[in-house]
Every structure is written in C-alpha cells, then in structure tokens.
Design a protein that fits this description.
Length: about 160
C-alpha cells in the first residue's frame, strides 16, 4: 500500500520511554510496525511533516529527520493548497490545525491508501472522518484511511492458540 507517514510516527519512534502505560504501548506498537511492517509498503511524507519534526530539542529533531531520510517527499501543489483551504474552511479541524489539514490534503491528492498517524485529535478520529470524506468526494477525490500503526499491523501479532 501507499502510506503517508505523518509527523507523529517518527516522533513516537525516537521519543524517550514515557511513564504513561498507554503511551509506552503506542510507542512499542509504532516501533514494531516500523521494524517489521514498513518494508511491505511504499512510504511517503511531505515538507509539512519535515517542518514539524524539525521543531524541539535538536538531537531528537535530528533523529526524527534521520528516520524520514530517503522517504519520497510529496510536493505541495496548487490542488493540495485548494483542498487544504477547503478543509480549514469547513472547520472540521480546529483553528491552528492547518498543518494537519495540509497533510490530509497531500495524502488525498497523491492517492495514498493510508495516512499513518498517532494524531488522534485531528486526524485519526472517527468523528471527523465522515466530513473529511465528504470534502474529498466533493473534490472528486478519495480520502485515504486515517489510522494508527496499531490499525495497520496486519498479522504482526500472533493470534492465541485456541487449543490452549
């Protein structure tokens, strides 16, 4: 599949171990997906994601940038700008989430099958996916699946043996 890597993915990959158990589990799922499943997909990212991961502590930013090194960068186009503006104008996303709208627009314009993220507030959120699908369809486009590494693991984890 064609998978757009949003900025939270490299952030989870290099983050220090958190105290929060849910965050620690998400971090491990992300590492497992990255180590064992990413090679099954064609990965893409964007300058928007690169700009986001370059913020913060310099060494962590360098590590995040290294992770995305070699992944093709989708160029911002006039079509993606128009779709970004439509998403922002719809108010489906809150004010200040223009970068998230831009990443959704790029993944849509470039016909990604999946936008991989841990941004559960503005992207992988079922409450906003219906209106985002409508906006994409009105533009003659198909919104990619907006999901987390946990949802894209496939057969990463073995099913329990029913005989035991």
């Amino acid at each position: 599949m064609r998978v757009y890597i949003e900025s939270t993915i490299p952030s989870y990959l290099v983050a220090r171990p958190p105290r929060d158990l849910l965050q620690a589990a998400r971090q491990q799922v992300t590492r497992d997906w990255w180590d064992f499943k990413r090679q099954e997909h064609d990965l893409f990212t964007s300058q928007i994601a690169l700009d986001e991961i370059r913020r913060g502590e310099a060494e962590m930013a360098r590590q995040r940038e290294t992770i995305l090194g070699g992944i093709p960068i989708l160029a911002v186009t006039e079509q993606s700008r128009v779709l970004t503006r439509r998403i922002v104008a719809s108010r489906v996303l809150p004010l200040g989430a223009e970068a998230d709208a831009g990443q959704i627009a790029l993944a849509t314009i470039y016909k990604m099958e999946v936008l991989l993220t841990w941004n559960l507030r503005h992207i992988a959120n079922a409450a906003i996916q219906v209106p985002l699908r409508k906006i994409a369809a009105e533009s003659g486009l198909t919104l990619p699946e907006l999901c987390t590494p946990e949802e894209l693991t496939g057969e990463l984890y073995e099913e329990p043996d029913e005989d035991n």
